[in-house]
Amino acid sequence: MRRRPGPSARLKLTLSYAGFLALAGALLLAVVWGFLLRYVPDNPKGLLGISPNRYVLVRAFLPAAAVAMAFLLLFGLVGGWLLAGRMLAPLTQITDAARRAGNGSLSHRIRMKGRQDEFRELSDAFDSMLGQLESHVAEQQRFAANASHELRTPLAISRTLLDVARKDPARDRDELIERLYVVNTRAIDLTEALLLLGRGDRGDFTRESVDLSLLAEEAAETLLPLAEQRRITLDVTGGAAPTGGSAELLLRMVTNLVQNAVVHNLPAGGTVTVHTGAHGGTSVLRVENSGPPLPPDLVPTLTEPFRRGSDRVRTDEHAGAGLGLAIVQSVVRAHDGTLDLLPRPGGGLLVTVRLPGGS
Description:
The structure is a single chain. Mean pLDDT is 80; it is low at 309-319. The chain has helices at 9-39, 54-102, 118-167, 173-202, 212-229, 247-263, 324-334, and strands at residues 208-211, 233-238, 242-245, 271-279, 282-289, 338-343, 349-356. It is elongated and about 125 Å long. It is built from 7 helices and 7 strands, in the order H-H-H-H-E-H-E-E-H-E-E-H-E-E. It is α+β, with helices and mostly antiparallel strands and 359 residues long. The two termini are 46 Å apart.
């Protein structure tokens, strides 16, 4: 946005310093002059013909006062200009860093030296903002690259299958259709997951009253056949956990957590426990599952989009794109909640979601 040019902050401060100094000097001279006039007689000969009268004092005082005022004004202008420049020097560094950031250089940091004051506090806050912005941009770039790669894979497979079918018309048509169907389904699921992830990040949804315990029962009922197929015990415990938000997004959050707990479990004889409850104005959802031990350094990365830990990669029909827990985190963040992941000592994972309580 274009703005009309105006006086700089340094000039404004200089004029302010000079103006205040001149005003203080004028008030001081006025006070001195007032006291002098009070005790000086006003007659042509003065006191006994010796002391000066007001006429003589006026002739002597006013020129000296004018010189003093001129000196104060000049001193205020010069001193104010130098002082304002020194005081505003840190602001120049911050402005330069802001221009660099505007041009795309997010790696630059001010790192202002000196004792803590308002400018240092602003500088530190700006450096912190640049760090978060750089991390966010890098994350978005990484996400875009991974999303492009994930979407390209099923499309490349479909193209390969079609090329093979075109070169070999005698190839089994039913097998080709089935493989194309599987690849296309995976591409659609991935696209829907990306759209859901973006919707959660934007937070553009209508809030309504939702009970997490009902969503947990619905998700468990939906995934019970999968749990029975894998010989995993699935239990839902606890009580009501009211909150406010999107029922659709919260159901997807609970479903992703339960499915994640079922899929990443022991080969047989594993357990999944879903517990809901309300504590002190906070609704809590816990999903705990058995499974192989998880490295401590792996757990914090599980919520990153497209991040698949080596111990959690699956090659069966439930292999995902690594968006399950990323969607969970996005939904939780959009609902002003917190998400905690902890490895269980005996193996498996404990996921705790805390959301603001509702009526």
